[in-house]
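Q: What would this complex look like in 3D?
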Amino acid sequence: MSTVAGSHFWGPVFALWQRDMIRFLRQKNRIIGALGAPLVFWVLIGSGVGPGFRLPGWPADMTYLAYFFPGTVVLILLFTAVFSTISVIEDRREGFLQGVLVAPVAPEAIVLGKLLGGTTLAVGQALLFCLAAPLAGVPLDAAVLARLLPALFVVGFALTGLGFLVAWPLESTQVFPAIMNVLIMPLWLLSGALFPAAADSWMRYAVAVNPVAYGTAAVRRAFYGDGASMGLVPGYGPALAVSVVFAAVMFALSVWMVRRRRGTV
Amino acid sequence: MTVYPVETDRLRRVFGARVALDDVSFAVREGEVFGLLGPNGGGKTTLFRILSTMLAPSGGAARICSHDVEREAPAVRSCLGVVFQSPSLDPHLTVAENLRYGGNLYGLRGAPLEARMRETAEALRVADRWSERVKTLSGGLQRRVEIAKSLLPRPRVLLMDEPSTGLDPVARVDLWSIIGQLRAESAMTVVLTTHLMDEAARCDRAAILHQGKLLACDTPEALCGMIGADVLTLTGREPDRLAGRVQAEFGWAASVHDGAVRVEVPRAHEQVARIVEAFPGEILAVTAGRPTLEDVFVRLTGERLGEPFFEKAGGRRKRR
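A: Here is my prediction, written as structure tokens for the whole assembly.
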């Protein structure tokens, strides 16, 4: 149980994770918030673009509803992950967090417990939405699931980490929507979720340096495999690898932030 | 050499240009209930946050169970129980869940943890609220659950930040019966902050903190003994004029605090009749008594401890 000089690790990680699960189940409106909005986006935007949608270099039979499907999955991950980290602000306001900070728990364990909680909720809701894949003509079988699960987990973890980094220094939830709109939504909009980057546009470079774009690519490749022709979208392996690095960086920055705010080690 | 469970050595903390703690040194003995008395803004909360490893000192040192709070924070946290002013409970969880997760954070789990949870909940009389959500409990009950949670790991030192804040009078009496119980039944050392002198008077020893400085540290009796006289308090229509006349007539140093004239004299009860007769119609009420910690505070700082300072200091203290 014990690691460095009297700090505990896996017990606290599990306790923090389990607490997030219980809190989520007791606040059922959060399910509607995280799953509802992306679903409405998908149906309205996806149906609106209609049958005239064609992309050069992409499968000819791909409808816009199908194209937009992986992007919606990432949006659900983003909404659930980021909103679950708002609980960090609530924990601070309600006082729970101070009890965690004075306990002999390593900062890595505090961050891991919170991020695994958010990731579990994000992956669960994204999977629920993925059951609708066949309705949009998006393939869903054992091979897809085997690629999808690691991609959802890694991208969900990275996005929860991003939300944690934003939420940790905040004193109130009031500024959170502004940060969502200015910082986090553009990351999603520039991820190839709504439309692919054209080879001759500036957006191509924005997509290339946007870590969320690799998450969207990993989810897209999880559904279609590397065989499908998809313009500039990277392969499953490279996209997942970049997402793992993104997740690791978010984790490390979060640990650094907890350490800094705690005042002592 | 005696090892103290809590000790500070020229402890210092600055926030920008403001000195919140100025060379504070004291030592708490094993098993003692130790009070840090001072007005809001006096440095108590800063000291509490340093001792609970939430804030690093700017200079000097603080040790809990011989571990440095800054360099050996994990070891300090392992021997510390902390009771916060606003409880560190999750309002959406039940009493049992809060205790369980609290125990998990200290590496406790399984059957031993469940047994200890039951035992502690019974000692603090919250066992009958086992499955109730914390947000439905009264402030007094929440404080008892918070104390139960902090006692689960059986800490050697219990730190309490203004534990009676927000409690009604019945719950305050209850809180002090719990502290009395802890003092009688365990060797645990308790350090608590308070701005209420009657609470400090119940401690084994108390330290008076004012503007970041530790002004005095002793048993309440010894602190009161610093004033080698009794205290007469006179209420009149024109306190400043009355103080001047008392000084001129009797040669006693008289001062005015909150509209009342305060005089330190030996055998005050014998002077009551004399002083009332000396100024007919000017004195509305007289009290004579042994000095209290309030009087000690006034003597040391020239200010009163109570709410007036609170307002003078610029409204509610911002929690950092």
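A: To summarize the key features: Residues 1-5 of chain A have pLDDT under 50 and may be disordered. Chain A has one domain: 4-262.
Q: Very helpful, thank you.
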